[in-house]
Amino acid sequence: MRRLVTTLSGVCLGLFILAGSLAHAEENFSQQQLKQIIRQEFRPSVKSIAPLLLSLNQLPFPDESGLGRSSLRKTVFKEFPAILARLEYLYPNGTFACLGRDTAFVADLLESFYYIHGIDKRVVRLGASSRTIHGMDSSELREFLVSNGLDLQAAADGSRPYVMIDRTPYTETSQSVLLMKSVFGKLDPDQRERIWTRVNFISSEVGIDIGDLREDQRRRIDQAMLMSFKNGARYPPALRLSSLARVTDVADSEWHNPFGASLVAHPDDGRLTGLPGRTFGQTSHRIAVNRIWEMLHIMQDPVFKEILTEEARRLNFDIWKQLGVGPKSPLEESAPDHLIQSASVGWIQKLKKLISDCERFLR
Predict the structure, then answer these.
(1) Which phi and psi angles does 293 have, rounded to 5°?
(2) How many helices (DSSP H) and strands (DSSP E) are in the chain?
(3) Which tens digit of pLDDT belongs to each residue from 166-193?
(4) What is the separation of C-alpha 345 from the centre of its chain, rounded to a whole number of angstroms?
(5) What is the DSSP letter of 256?
(6) Domain for residue 38, yes or no?
(7) Quick one: how far is CA 249 from the chain centroid?
(8) pLDDT tens digits, one per residue of 50-77
(9) In this structure, is residue 26 part of a structural domain?
């Protein structure tokens, strides 16, 4: 019996050392990946870094700030559920296209929510600044949008509305209006009418107000927009969601200077994007990554989900049923592939369990 105990003690010690070695290797690997992320020329999408971030038990860069040390965390809880509920209410299964750098924070929030719930291809980032948009003609702008998810047939039949989002005054020469003109300019009246309420622009500054929506008011919004079509407008009016102003233009989470005039293929997926300007210092990059880590956890927070459920209920719809998911995220349900931690983390957990079993036996 004494020999068995000695042998088991040795096994436990070996497992403990192995677990520690694997944990150290995993930590080093994660740090190497994080260093690669903050050196990227393009601002990373949530999808591209979420698996790594979800494997971490603390802020990726603990010495830098995130949401928790500022009022931004409260803003996310207060404003984002209402924003998301209105977007889903007006544009079920829509593509939300966030224009330029000012909406990078909004794109992070939207991507984080849909990623956590296993929903793909709902958010695109229109990598363009003033120089990019004004450097293209109408056909090039339309090609740019098509490359970034615009499908006029899917919009016309209602299966995939396309909604651009920006902090814009929506004037004749603004980037937002030039993009809308590129979509509607060469369509005949019948074609324009079919997509008039399904290819739209949401601004934080001007337009038909959707911030104070109540249940069953979608028809009223559509009627107001179609009235502009009947009155001869060349493109739809903007919709205004003033709460967007509080989650846009977060300067210290920007990744680079304005996009240039040249279009290039994005290295992640080949879609057209403006060439990023000079990248900012790595401090701002680390803050941005920290905030994404926090967003991914906020989207799983029961308080956040309760607020979102209530915001949707005020509009008389069940957002979870519409999305085809439950309030409980896949991470909490069954940890599907897109949320599973790295293999070494799994082995470390198994080794820890074996060590615990050994200790219980020896006691």
Answers:
(1) -55, -45
(2) 15, 8
(3) 999 999 999 999 999 999 998 999 999 9
(4) 26
(5) B
(6) no
(7) 15
(8) 999 999 999 999 988 888 766 788 889 9
(9) no
